[in-house]
Design brief:
The chain has 384 residues and is α/β, with parallel strands linked by helices. The chain has 17 helices and seven strands. Strands 5-4-1-2-3-6-7 form a seven-stranded mixed sheet, with helices on both faces. α2 runs antiparallel to α9. The longest helix is centred in the C-terminal third of the chain and has 18 residues. 46% of the residues are buried.
C-alpha cells in the first residue's frame, strides 16, 4: 500500500479512529490521506467543531494529508457519501481505501455490494421504504447478516465495482463499542456515546486519545460546541414562507417530505420539535435532518449526482506535501488551498463553491461563540 485513503467525519475523533490510523500505518502505508467531512455530517447536522480543528486532530493522530469531502456529499446518505468519497480518492491517486467494519469480512462485503446492483434489489428497497426506514429495508433486501455500520462498507465496495477502478479495499475490524452504543465508559467509546455526553453538558476530553486532547481544548475554547438546533428559528422561517411546488428539486425532499416539513413548521417552535413533528416510519431521523439542511442550502438532486469538482486542502505534513507534489500531473481532481483557486475550474466547481459557502454560512450560526463565516475558512499557517 502506497497511498491509503480514509473517508471520515471525526465527529469527534475517538480511540476507534486512532486504531484505524495505527492499523493502516502498521500495514505499510507510505501516505495516509483522510478525506474528511467539512461543516456538516451524514446525519445532516453540524459537526461538533469546524473542519480545520478536526483536521489538526487527524494530523496529531498520524494522518499525512487531510482534504475536505465537499458539501453536500458530506451530509448525504450513504450512497452519495460513499460514491463521492471513492471517486475523489481514486482521482486523487489513492491506491487503497481503508475503513472500519463490524465484521471486516471482505468477501461478504463484496458479495453484498454486487447484490445492490441487481434490479430486484432496488425494487425491494423502494417498496420497503414506503413503510420502514431506509437502513432496515437495505439489509432486508440484501438478505445478509451485515451490521448497520457496514452500510458504508457495502457502498464503498459498490462504488469501486461500478467504476471498475483498481483501488484495493482494506476493511479493519471495528474495536470497542458498537456504532450506536451509548456507553461512553469503556476504552473505545463510540462517537454516538461521546456526542450524548456533550449533549448532557459533560466534558469528553479525557475520553479522547491523548494525542488530540490539546487541540480539542484549544478548539472548544475558540469555537465552543456547534449545535444544529441553533438553526431552528431560521429553518422555521424558511419553511413557513415556502411553497412546495416551487422547490420540488430539493434533494432528499421527494415523495411528499417537503410538504410534510412545511406543514410541521406551522406546528413546531424549534429545531427538535420540527424534526419530531415531521417524523414517520417512512422517513428516518437522518433523512428529515438532511432534508431540512438541503432546504436551507438549496441543494438539488443534480448537485448530489455530480462528481466532486475539486478538493480543499485542510492540512498536510512533509509526506502529505510530497504526495501532492508527486501526483500533481496524474491526479484528475484539483486540490485547492484557497477559494480564489476555484474560479478557473469551470461552472461545476463554481456551483460547488456556492454550496460550500452556503454550508459555511449556516455553520457560522451553529457555533457556540459568535463567528463570521470568513473566520471559519481561515486556515492556520501549518498543521503538522
Amino acid at each position: 500500500m502506497k497511498a491509503v485513503g480514509i473517508i471520515c467525519e471525526y465527529n469527534p475523533f475517538h480511540a476507534g479512529h486512532l486504531h484505524l490510523l495505527d492499523t493502516v500505518r502498521a500495514s505499510g502505508a507510505e501516505t495516509v490521506i483522510c478525506l474528511m467531512s467539512g461543516y456538516f455530517t451524514q446525519r445532516g447536522e453540524a459537526a461538533i467543531l469546524p473542519p480545520i480543528s478536526r483536521a489538526a486532530m487527524a494530523m496529531a493522530a498520524g494522518a499525512d494529508l487531510v482534504l475536505e469531502l465537499p458539501f453536500p456529499y458530506a451530509a448525504a446518505s450513504a450512497r452519495y457519501f460513499a460514491t463521492a468519497g471513492v471517486d475523489a480518492l481514486q482521482r486523487l491517486g489513492a491506491d487503497t481505501l481503508a475503513f472500519g467494519s463490524e465484521r471486516a469480512d471482505l468477501p461478504a462485503i463484496l458479495q453484498a455490494a454486487k447484490r445492490t446492483t441487481e434490479a430486484d434489489f432496488a425494487e425491494k428497497v423502494a417498496n420497503g421504504a414506503k413503510n420502514r426506514g431506509d437502513a432496515a429495508v437495505f439489509f432486508d433486501a440484501l438478505g445478509d447478516d451485515l451490521l448497520s455500520n457496514d452500510i458504508l462498507a457495502v457502498e464503498y465496495a459498490r462504488a469501486v465495482q461500478l467504476r471498475q477502478n483498481k483501488m484495493t479495499l482494506f476493511p479493519v475490524l471495528r474495536v470497542g463499542a458498537g456504532y450506536r452504543d451509548g456507553n461512553a465508559e469503556q476504552p473505545y467509546p463510540s462517537a454516538t456515546a461521546l456526542r450524548e455526553k456533550l449533549e448532557n453538558g459533560m466534558d469528553i476530553c479525557d475520553d479522547l486519545p491523548a494525542c488530540v486532547r490539546t487541540e480539542w481544548r484549544r478548539a472548544v475554547a475558540l469555537w465552543g460546541i456547534a449545535k444544529t438546533e441553533r438553526l431552528g428559528v431560521a429553518m422555521l422561517a424558511r419553511l413557513r414562507v415556502m411553497r412546495a411546488e416551487a422547490t420540488d428539486e430539493t434533494a432528499d425532499c421527494g415523495g411528499g417530505l417537503l410538504e410534510r416539513l412545511i406543514g410541521a413548521a406551522r406546528e413546531a417552535t424549534d429545531y427538535e420539535s420540527l424534526c419530531r413533528a415531521a417524523a414517520t416510519k417512512k422517513y428516518t431521523n437522518g433523512r428529515i435532518r438532511r432534508a431540512l439542511l438541503y432546504t436551507m442550502a438549496d441543494v438539488r438532486y443534480a448537485d448530489l449526482a455530480a462528481e466532486p469538482a475539486y478538493l480543499r486542502l485542510l492540512a498536510a505534513n512533509e509526506r502529505g506535501r510530497a504526495f501532492l507534489s508527486k501526483s500533481r500531473k496524474t491526479r484528475t481532481v484539483p486540490v485547492v488551498t484557497k477559494q480564489a483557486d476555484v474560479a478557473a475550474l469551470g461552472a461545476l466547481a463554481a456551483r460547488q463553491q456556492e454550496l460550500s459557502a452556503a454550508a459555511e454560512s449556516l455553520y457560522s450560526l451553529c457555533t457556540e461563540r459568535p463567528v463570521l463565516p470568513r473566520e471559519l475558512a481561515i486556515l492556520p499557517p501549518e498543521m503538522c
